[in-house]
Amino acid sequence: MTTILAIESSCDDTSAAVLRDDTLLSNVIASQKVHEQYGGVVPELASRAHQQNIIPVVDAAIREAGIEREDIDAVAFTRGPGLLGSLMVGVSFAKSFALALGKPLIEVNHLQAHVLSHFIRVGSGESAVDSTRAQMPPTFPFICLLVSGGHTQILLLHSHFEMELLGQTIDDAAGEAIDKAAKIMDLGYPGGPIIDRLAKEGNADAYKFATPHIAGYDYSFSGIKTSFLYFLRDRLKEDPDFIEKHKADLCASIQKTIVGFLLKKVERAALDRGVKQIAIAGGVSANSLLRSELQHICQKHHWQAFVPPFKFCTDNAAMVGIAGYFKYLQGDFADQSLPPYTR
Ligand code: KG4
Ligand code: ZN
Question: Which ligand 1 atom is at minimum distance from the Cα of 197?
Answer without folding.
Answer: 26
